[in-house]
Amino acid sequence: MATLQTQLADLRRRFEALPADARAAEIAPLEADARALLAASKNTPFEDEAKALFAELARRSAPPAPETAALRGLLRRARIRMEMAAGDEDYDAAVDILAEALAQDPDNAETLALLQKAAGRSAAIGMRIRDMLNRYGSSVEIAEPTEEAASEPTASSSDEETGPASTLPPSLAGASPVDQLLVEITQAYYAGDYQQVVDLANRALTIQPDNVTVLDYRQKSEDNLLRGIVPDHRIPFDARVAYNRANSLVRAGNYEDASRLYREAREIAERAGITTWKDAEQALLDIQDLSLARELLADGDRLLAGDDWTGALRKYEGAQRVVPSDPIAQERIDLVKKIIDQYDKASVQMNMMPGGLTERVTSLQNLLGMLASMRQTLPGSARLQTMAAEAEKRLAAIKAQLVDQGRAAATRAEAASVLEEKMRLTSEAVTAFATAARIDPGDSEINGLLATARQAEAQISEARQIIERSSALIAQNFDNELAQARTMLAGLRQYSQDPRYRMIVADLLARHLERIETAIDQRDAATAERWMAIVKDDPFKILGRRSELLALEEEIRNLRRGRTLRGVVVGGIVIIGLVALVALLRPVWTPVLFPPTATATFTPSNTPTFTNTPTYTLTPTYTLTPTNTFTPTYTFTPSNTPTLTYTFTPSRTPTYTNTPTETYTPSDTPTPSNTPTITVTPSLTYTPSITPTPQAICQVVVPQGRNNILVRLQPSLIAQVEASASANQQMEVLEQKRGTDGLLWYHVRFKLILENINIDGWVRSDNVQAITPCPSVS
Q1: Looking at the predicted structure, is the pLDDT value of residue 471 above 80?
Q2: Are the beta carbons of 261 and 242 closer than 8 angstroms?
Q3: At the N or C end, where does the chain have fewer CB atoms within 10 A?
């Protein structure tokens, strides 16, 4: 505690040691120390001293103002006092007010002028003013009062001359004059006659100057006179009633009637002998300030309604300077400052619109919301209405631009062939239409365009998902999954120009062609025809008629013709076998059909007859694909076959009998036999020759996720498969060539590490990925 007191005393000495013309930079360190001491002295006995020291430093460091609001208020109150003065007491009160103004600004010209005017009232006032000016070091000369002013009797002298004779009680008849005067002084003081107390005290002090009690009474009476204090019991009842009614009118805002009642209360008090009623005088001064403040507020309201916000702010600030505690003025000041600040922000936001159309729409909508809030406060403001109309006009222009952009994006999306490009353009159209709909939610045309764009966006997104799902199903390479993928892709004919879609359809077609080739290899014509019928339907129609399809159709037709031919041959063999069987069983069925007569005698004989019997032999041949083709032919090989026949021998009989004649019946009986025929089957013979090894023109690799890439002997989907390559298998490209399917094929060479086999064959270019750039092929 002692340390805090020492610090305050040291700071006080440093402050008093500052020169009169000290700058703010020199006072700033002291002010910082005072602020720290003020914080440290909270809730201590030294808090008031720290506050006072800090206030002095703040006043000293503050820049000098030509005339503060408090000073103007003091000068105004003093002027009103002097204009309404009924005696020297009013001038004394005005001098007291001017003394406060002089303490604030000793060089103020208006203060000095009012002091000179007050000095001309009387010599006593002039002497008091001279002492005051000398105390402040002012060089202003005070003129002596005129004779007319000096000859006017003062209230105190008249009271002293005409005052009532003092009456003493009988018990004080033999007392000293000072004691008698002290009794009168006490009676007059408690009766509220302070001027009589001062006069009696002066008479007593001439007799006994060091009487403390008399000096105390005189000091208190002078203070009460200066402050205009009147005991309540001395104020007449009518004056008090008028004063209270005036207070009620002030609270109601009726300042004119309140001023009239305050004057009436003062007049009643003056008639009762109360020359100075401080409350009434102060009320009249206050009501003048309130009236002036109300006038300024009314002027400010009129300027505010006329959109002169700066002028209205000046009027409101003037009203607050007149009546600092007026809450209405403070409320209006805050309102005008807020409106000016919001309007300035809105103007900046209106003139500086950053970003694209969407950001501008957001800024303008926020601006319109701000203006709507301001127009609720100022519904008749033309400036706010003009700005709101300009913002709405800009919003309408942006809405038209957004609609045009959305339609252009939708048109480009319809013309785009790539699905991703369609999706991007459709999303732009949706964004533009959504922003335009946010500007004007009630526009049915924009809402219809937005719904159409969102529907198109949903369809494109669904198509993209279907394509991805179909790709996954095709990669599984099962019949059910391929059928499902085919059904899903068939419903996306409107996106047939998308490269991704066409690539997946081509991949699906390749899987179907593999099924057809497998069925042909297995000589299953029905299965091959069923798969061929599938590849002729959607979605494969978008790829057109390909050469490999024609080749596969020809193979299927050949397979079907071979099957028909085999059926015919088998049927012929069956028929021939039946005929041969019938011929062999002729001895059995001939007697049944043609029975002999009773006299006929037949002598059988065994006569071998050599006949030339041709035998049908079906000789299969083998076909070597793709160059040497052997066509099967029918070869008839004759053979010597002995045939047992019956020969009738004539004989002579003594009786007349029917003699049979010799009948030679040669017969050509073909006997089918399965005679194998040796057919020479040519075989491929590799003849070594000196051939230079071709150089690789580039390198390719099987992409990650692709397995079992087929390597064929020729650049065609129907060529024989030599091997298969797995993912990440690197290959050297020896040659590039357009295949029968119209696609680009690579003649590759690589080695299977696990099998230790060198592979040389053809792969399709879309199944591999280039490591090094390959030359272009026209």
Answers
A1: yes
A2: yes
A3: C
- When pLDDT is cut at 50, 70 and 90, the band that residue 234 belongs to is low
* Cα(671)–Cα(392) distance, integer angstroms: 110
| Overall size of the chain counted in residues | 778
For residue 236, what is the DSSP state?
Answer: -
Contacts of 139 (CB under 8 A, 6+ apart): none
What distance in Å separates the CA atoms of residue 647 and residue 644, rounded to the nearest whole number? 10
Question: What is the residue-averaged pLDDT of the chain?
Answer: 75
523 φ, ψ to 5°?
55, 35
Burial class of residue 571, CB neighbours in 10 A (0-12, 13-18, 19+)? exposed
Q: What is the pLDDT of residue 672?
A: 47
Q: Which two tokens stand for residue 693?
A: 């090894």
> How do the domains of the chain map onto residue ranges?
2-61, 69-153, 175-227, 233-342, 381-462, 468-559, 597-674, 698-770
Q: Greater confidence, 251 or 617?
A: 251
For the stretch 161-195, pLDDT in tens is 333 334 444 444 456 777 778 888 887 776 667 77
Question: 164-169 long-range contacts, Cβ below 8 Å, gap at least 24?
Answer: 166/200
Give yes or no for a contact between 731 and 748, defined as CB atoms under 8 angstroms apart: yes
| Least confidently predicted of 84-93, 593-602, 734-743, 744-753 | 593-602
How is domain 698-770 classified at the CATH fold level? SH3 type barrels. (2.30.30)
Distance in angstroms (rounded) separating the CA atoms of residues 299 and 312: 7
Dihedral sign for Cα 724, 729, 734, 740, please. Answer: positive
Cβ neighbours around 163 below 10 Å, total: 15
142-152: per-residue pLDDT in tens? 766 554 444 44
SS (H, E, C) 32-68: HHHHHHHHHCCCCCCHHHHHHHHHHHHHHHCCCCCCC
65 pLDDT above the threshold of 50: no
Three-state DSSP class for 275? Answer: coil
Task: Identify the helix (H) or strand (E) that includes residue 168.
Answer: none
- Whether the Cβ atoms of residue 371 and residue 382 lie closer than 8 Å to each other: no
**How far apart are alpha carbons 477 and 302 in whole angstroms?**
87
Is the separation of the CB atoms in 329 and 313 below 8 Å?
Answer: no
DSSP letters spanning 621-648: ----SSS------EEEEEEEEEE----P
CA angle 424, 427, 429 (to 5 degrees): 115
Encoded tokens for 270: 């003056």
Question: How far is CA 108 from each of CA 75, 80, 81, 479, rounded to the nearest angstrom?
Answer: 10, 18, 19, 109
CB-CB neighbours of 325 under 10 Å? 7
How many CB atoms are located within 10 Å of the residue 34 CB? 25
pLDDT for 30: 79
Terminal Cα-to-Cα distance of the chain (whole angstroms)? 103
Distance CA 406, CA 412 (A): 10
CB 768 within 8 A of CB 701: yes
Instruction: Check residue 700 and give its pLDDT.
Output: 92
206-213 long-range contacts, CB within 8 A, separation 24+: 207/177, 207/178, 207/181, 208/178, 211/178, 211/182, 213/182
**Domain 233-342, CATH class in plain words:** mainly alpha
Q: What is the DSSP string of 482-532?
A: HHHHHHHHHTTGGGTT-HHHHHHHHHHHHHHHHHHHHHHHTT-HHHHHHHH
- Taking each helix axis from N to C end, the angle separating 47-61 and 2-16, rounded to the nearest 10 degrees, works out to 20
Q: What are phi and psi of 613, to 5 degrees?
A: -105, 110
Judged against a pLDDT cut of 90, whether residue 295 lies above it is answered with: no
**649: exposed, middle or buried (Cβ count in 10 Å: 0-12, 13-18, 19+):** exposed
- CB-CB contact of 471 with 706 (8 Å): no
